[in-house]
Amino acid sequence: MTISEEKNKLTVRSEYFNLADTLECGQVFRYAKNDGSYYIISKDKHCRAEQDGGGVTITSSDIGYFKNYFALDEDYAEKHAEIISIAPELKAAAEAGKGIRLLRQDPFEMVISFIISANNNIPRIKGIIDRIAAEAGTKKEWGYAFPTQAQMCMLTEADFRRLGAGYRASYLTSASRAVTDGFLSGLTVSDTGSAMKKLLTVKGVGKKVADCIMLFGLGRGDTFPVDTWMEQALLTETLNTNAKIRCHYIDRLGSLAGLAQQYIYHYKRNIEKKTV
DNA sequence: AACCAGGCTCTCC
DNA sequence: GGAGAGCATGGT
Which of A43, A207, A208, A268 is catalytic? Predict the structure, then answer.
């Protein structure tokens, strides 16, 4: 992987960085595609990103933030190879998704976003999040920042319903109050099992949503979110519950389980479908 | 018109 | 601890 950097611009050349696959595998909701460029908002930061034969180019006044966001200090070639080595049956999915990188996103934003994601579809999740940001987030020249915890606490259950959250509205008011900076820093120092337990105390957060928060917002690879797509892909006679699927892959892959899960999710949703 | 979407809570056993 | 009902909303 080679990185060339200017003031507000960064170009990454690597076969292990596919911008579209990274953004469109369901880990992030605040991005829009326009004329081949992606416009990404994370927390209170914004960038434009595009990919051509020469690599991925990121433009932002906060380029340091997005170096971390895209985890450009990590070697995904090694992770990719190790997953295939441990779990050869995932080779097709891993090859198809080799350019996927796990983004380092803001934990509070992940809690709120994935509460909304429950029993919902991605276009609608994006719409609800955008409307909440426009309602409560700080206005910037490029749009609206994701609301801070204090800003989220300004919204009522009726507000969240008006913005389309449906029955998740009460979860959002309650979670906004519960997920303080202190709560989140407690998660950082806990092991994954303890962090899971703490997250499950938040209304609207179950095991799957907790795994997503830990994987996308807390950098914990030893997780394995099982949603309806993963059930379709992985339920078998022996692995016949979500918990068994989750344990099976975490036991084998450890901190690489989360990335493997992204390969499978991407393959099931974006690749396999096209060939049928 | 049923069924589904990055499931969760609550109840009952 | 596990099974089942109910849940807002919009797309197919």
Answer: A208
